[in-house]
């Protein structure tokens, strides 16, 4: 008999989380919509693009932390918009200063503005520097099992392979690569980028991912708050399905009601 999968909590950098849905804070109509969607998603970790969001840099502008306070959420500064290691490291240092020595960061170093694919060489350079400086790095990368293992061996606290290009909504394009990454990882694996709707999130969880990070799929929906609730349910359903163990796929029929032992 196949051994049942055992559930385990999501633990990142030594901290345990109930929610496996991480959400971004950009692209919403206003801060109130950001707050409402984040609450509907049930997120406990929220990413903040330091280069694009005010978390205290500009005292005269609305502060994101007023609606998503650090005592309620784990603020995850990210390096969105950085195209080289130096800018990414500088952005993380700024975040640490603004957030009172906060060290958990999401590292992304992009290769070009058209595809927004990660520049892996620059990402590795930045990760090495940040880890040496005591940062706890959650790294955005391609869906490459070899790279995922490399980042884990370097000391990244989580690896975040893309499902598809950022903001594309295409869903997971290479199920087998994601599965290979998940099955060989000792750190949390969270799908990041490319989710378009609830079924995409559920599939990521059914593959065994520890969580999913998304922004555009929620903020860009016609009704962001309703989509946030849908994503929350999809994450929970996908995790339950993964733990339950799906039936094998077959090329032929298998009767739902057995005919053996029937009375007539």
Describe the structure.
With 264 residues, this protein is an alpha/beta fold. Helix content is 34%, strand content 16%. The protein is built from eight helices and ten strands. Strands 5-4-3-10-9 form a five-stranded parallel β-sheet. α1 runs parallel beside α8, α2 runs parallel beside α3 and α4 packs parallel to α5. It is globular.
- Distance between the ends: 32 Å
Q: How can the largest sheet be summarized?
A: 5 strands, parallel
List SSEs in N-to-C order.
EEEHEEHEHEHEHEHEHH
Major β-sheet strand ordering: 5-4-3-10-9
Uncertain regions: pLDDT < 50 for 5+ in a row? none
> Can you count the helices?
8
Mean pLDDT: 93
What is the percent of helical residues? 25-40%
Estimated structural class: alpha/beta
Instruction: Give the amount of beta strand, in percent.
Output: 15-25%
Taken from the alpha-carbon principal axes, the silhouette is globular
Rg for CA atoms: 20 Å
Tally the beta strands: 10
Draw up the topology in text:
Layout: E1 10-12, E2 15-17, E3 21-24, H1 31-41, E4 45-49, E5 74-78, H2 85-98, E6 104-107, H3 120-132, E7 136-141, H4 145-154, E8 158-161, H5 175-183, E9 190-192, H6 198-206, E10 211-214, H7 216-219, H8 224-244
Parallel strand pairs: 3-4, 3-10, 4-5, 6-7, 7-8, 9-10
Antiparallel strand pairs: 1-2
Helix pairs in contact: 1-8, 2-3, 4-5, 6-8
